[in-house]
Amino acid sequence: MLIPNEAYVAITDKLRVHKFNRRAHDGTWQVKICDLIYMMSQQPIDVFGLKDSQAEVYPAPQEVIKKDEKGAVVDQYQVYGMLRIKRHKTDIGIDIEMNEELADLITWFRDFKRSQGIISEHLMVYPMYLDVRSRAKPVKHRFMQSAWRDACVKAGYGDQYQLRDLRKKGLTNEFIQQGENDKGGHTTQAMKEHYRLITPPKRARSTLKYIGKSEAG
């Protein structure tokens, strides 16, 4: 199921307030986790198991210029960091070049831990206002599944969208924006297409000219 942007915004807005022990707390960390699932576009086990050491944010962006075999520039962009993961399902390593948004998101989680006085090798941890069994511990997939499900209902979508749909949304949008890529870490073309819910139209340039002299007007 492809989650429309407006639905994603409505659902995550419900996560911005986290009620715990009858008190309302800042739930921005829950929204950021959803953003990370979407931007990484990986299986939950590879997102929730992410450690600080797997993410490198560069002091300054690095320019990447890709050329074809003839030396012509085919792509040019800036990389703000590198995210290195290994898929548990296939044991395939994936190096994700981070754009500015993903690098900022990684930095947000690190700043969040620092603001909470938490020292942990895990990137995503529970805030200190939770009970002693949870605070400063790695965030669990099942916790976010439940939080997402409740927010989805509150936003008026019932059980129409699931947390796992964020992976498909991410891989679909990535395909639309950059074309063929290996971000999903799939070993077959069939599996790549399984996670792409929209097929963009093929693009072509028109370079043909009149065969004969064109009539004026």
Give descriptors for this structure.
single chain, 217 residues, alpha+beta, hpI Integrase, Chain A, 3-stranded antiparallel sheet, two-stranded antiparallel sheet, 7 helices, 5 strands
Question: Could you explain how this protein is built, in words?
Answer:
- The chain is an alpha+beta fold and 217 residues long.
- It has a single domain, classed as Intergrase catalytic core (hpI Integrase, Chain A, Orthogonal Bundle).
- The chain is 36% helix and 19% strand.
- The strands form two sheets. Strands 3-4-5 form a three-stranded antiparallel sheet. Strands 1-2 form a two-stranded antiparallel sheet.
- Helix 2 runs antiparallel to helix 4 and helix 2 crosses helix 6.
- The termini are far apart.
- 24% of the residues are buried.
- The model is unreliable at 184-198 and 201-212 (pLDDT under 50).
Largest sheet: 3 strands, antiparallel
- Bin the strand percentage: 15-25%
CATH architecture: Orthogonal Bundle
Let me know the CATH homologous superfamily. Intergrase catalytic core
Order of H and E elements: HEEHHEEEHHHH
Question: CATH class, please?
Answer: Mainly Alpha
Helix content: 25-40%
State the end-to-end distance: 51 Å
Enumerate the strands of the largest sheet in spatial order, edge to edge or round the barrel. 3-4-5
Tally of individual domains: 1
Question: How many DSSP helices?
Answer: 7
Low-confidence stretches: 184-198, 201-212
C-alpha Rg, in Å? 21 Å
What structural class results from the helix and strand content? alpha+beta
Shape: globular
Using DSSP, what is the number of strands? 5
- The average pLDDT score comes to 83
Could you please say which CATH topology applies here? Answer: hpI Integrase, Chain A
